[in-house]
Structure prediction request, 403 residues.
Amino acid sequence: MRTIIHLDMDAFFASVEQRDNPHLLNKPIAITGSGERTVLVSPSYDARSFGVKTGMTKYQARKLCPEIVFVSGNTVKYTKACKDIIKRLYTFTPDIEIFSIDEFFLDITDSMHLFGSKKTVAKKAQSIIKTELGLDCSIGIAHNKLLAKFASERAKPAGIFTIEKNDVHKILDPSPVDELCGIGKSTTHALNAMGIETIAQLRKADASMLKRTFGVNGLYIQLMAKGIGDDKVIPMGKEQDAKSLGHSMTFSSDTSDPKLFRRYLLEIADLVGRRLRREGLSTKTIRLTVRYKSFKTFTKQKTFLTSTDDTKTIYDQSSAILRSIKLKEPIRLLGITASKLTPYSESDSLFTQEKRKYKLNRVLDDVNERFGNASVLFASLLEDSGHSKVISPAWRPSGNRNY
Prediction:
């Protein structure tokens, strides 16, 4: 039986800001993007005591907590803090899986004897991160990742919670089904409509009924309710590369202005293209995401005959998709996702025009890599867009998710 730790940083972005700026300590703060329309990314625990939550708008948060301080996020600072944490965690085991920028799984099965016990490892990890980095974390301990993550939620804030194998049902059973990692809002609503509200009810539910309703996933979520989950920690560098690469941006105000659409799409296409080229990848399918003023969101995609990593091509195809849509409301957000990724091949650049694009893109990438991301850019991007730039949950400190 394996021993897995789930280490979850407490209000990570907010805690980093409070650590670096003592004037923010013991104040209700929330991290946001740079634009007015951005949502909250990480409220501090002081803010959460007023009911402020991740995903709220600034207006909603200020209504609940008039004294709240909004801090524009600093992605460079947070990614550095993440790497600093990982460096400390290697003290305990080489088997570390980065679940997100502020969550980590550690398999300490083969190393905990060096420290005495699993709880000793947890306490030492907490202590090192607190004393050396000035940050708090919560730790869950169990025999698989599903239960370790469940346990870390019980440990918040700054605690340690262990689920022993004999106590699984006793701890899980009374909890709502959505406390299991992987059961989202739509599945929760569907389960509730079936009269299944607690994990115990899901565990005891008729398996055939779950399969009829949810397909094979119905059997999987019932296994989760029994505390059965994957215990394989995938160390950094061995994780599967992302199957798609994407970026999205929120407008500073809802708009139907085609000029703004073009400007935003070009900036997003540039981000996507640069990531593709950095990883030596190309794409055959571009998916455009549109979010209306009402928050209704939909996607539409287009597949090409040949793969590309060219910013202009990605932009042109995204623009064509947008022009094909009869817009019903002003737009709040646009996003571009590249999928069907394959390694870039020079055979994709057989023609002179394609070779020119290839060389030009890489010269621009090299300049921006050496002198900063905005050193050379399209003329239409010179004016600051004021959009929100925050870290995606898919971010990783290496590979094609490092952006």
